[in-house]
């Protein structure tokens, strides 16, 4: 994925994004952090092709990107499997193959046997797993995730960190993950990018070099998260002034 000089401005409003240059190799896991309103979600929308940049170029290898939101956005009148099958149907997968492929994807996110459950029967964490399976069903090379675990409790979020890391390694997808939680970014990402407050620019980045088992309470994760948080606070204070 490559972005060159990407800027965004709506009509006569303020500049949202300003001169974003970004290159992400295939199969990388990159986390994006920044203050609320700095343009993180707008940047994901541009990468996903949901809206154009005002200036600049965006190149995404393959056939584009799938986007996963904070809310699972499952269709409540469909079962878990049917929600996944819908993405396959929109891709043109035939009826004979959809069920088996959907079951495989639910197995991948550890929801095998839950395909016939209604959405209201699923916990918040289970719904997000179904949403992840549905995103993977789009068979895009790039997976964009906009605060997908932000509404979940800490324990469920921690479990889903493990699941996402496992799925990422199994599928080889390129992942761009937006979060307000700096420790979450260090726990998951190979790189962490910090965006400035408006106009949004990438002002700093870190390569995450944490040896041994990586978990959110690990001292190395906490130490790097503390450093990044210090820079994030500086950006927030600068904007406030």
TrEMBL record:
Keyword Nucleotide-binding assigned: yes
Pfam families: ABC_tran
Gene3D superfamilies from the UniProt entry: P-loop containing nucleotide triphosphate hydrolases
Assigned keywords, A-Z: ATP-binding, Nucleotide-binding, Transport
Alphabetized InterPro entries for the sequence: AAA+_ATPase, ABC_transporter-like_ATP-bd, ABC_transporter-like_CS, ABC_transporter_ATP-bind, P-loop_NTPase
CDD domains: ABC_NrtD_SsuB_transporters
Superkingdom of origin: Bacteria
Protein name: Sulfate ABC transporter ATP-binding protein
PANTHER family tied to this protein: ALIPHATIC SULFONATES IMPORT ATP-BINDING PROTEIN SSUB, TAURINE IMPORT ATP-BINDING PROTEIN-RELATED
GO molecular function: ATP binding; ATP hydrolysis activity
Domain ABC transporter, chain residue ranges per copy: 1-224
Keyword Nucleotide-binding: yes
């Amino acid at each position: 994925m490559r972005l060159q000089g990407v800027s965004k401005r709506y009509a006569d409003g303020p500049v949202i994004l300003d001169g974003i240059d970004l290159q992400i190799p295939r199969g990388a896991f990159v986390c994006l952090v920044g203050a609320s309103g700095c343009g993180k979600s707008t940047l994901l929308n541009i990468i996903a092709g949901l809206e154009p940049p005002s200036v600049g170029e965006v190149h995404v290898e393959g056939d584009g990107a799938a986007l996963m939101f904070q809310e699972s956005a499952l269709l409540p009148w469909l079962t878990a499997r049917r929600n996944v099958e819908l993405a396959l149907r929109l891709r043109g997968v035939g009826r004979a193959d959809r069920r088996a492929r959907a079951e495989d994807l639910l197995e991948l996110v550890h929801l095998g046997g839950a395909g016939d459950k209604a959405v209201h029967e699923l916990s918040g964490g289970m719904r997000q797993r179904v949403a992840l399976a549905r995103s993977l069903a789009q068979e895009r090379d790039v997976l964009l995730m906009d605060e997908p675990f932000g509404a979940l409790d800490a324990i469920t979020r921690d479990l889903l960190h493990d699941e996402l890391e496992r799925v990422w390694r199994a599928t080889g997808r390129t992942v761009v993950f937006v979060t307000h939680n700096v420790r979450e970014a260090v726990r998951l990402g190979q790189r962490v990018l910090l965006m400035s407050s408006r106009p949004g620019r990438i002002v700093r980045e870190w390569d995450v070099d944490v040896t041994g088992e990586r978990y959110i309470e690990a001292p190395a994760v906490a130490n790097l998260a503390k450093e990044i948080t210090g820079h994030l606070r500086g950006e927030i204070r600068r904007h406030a002034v």
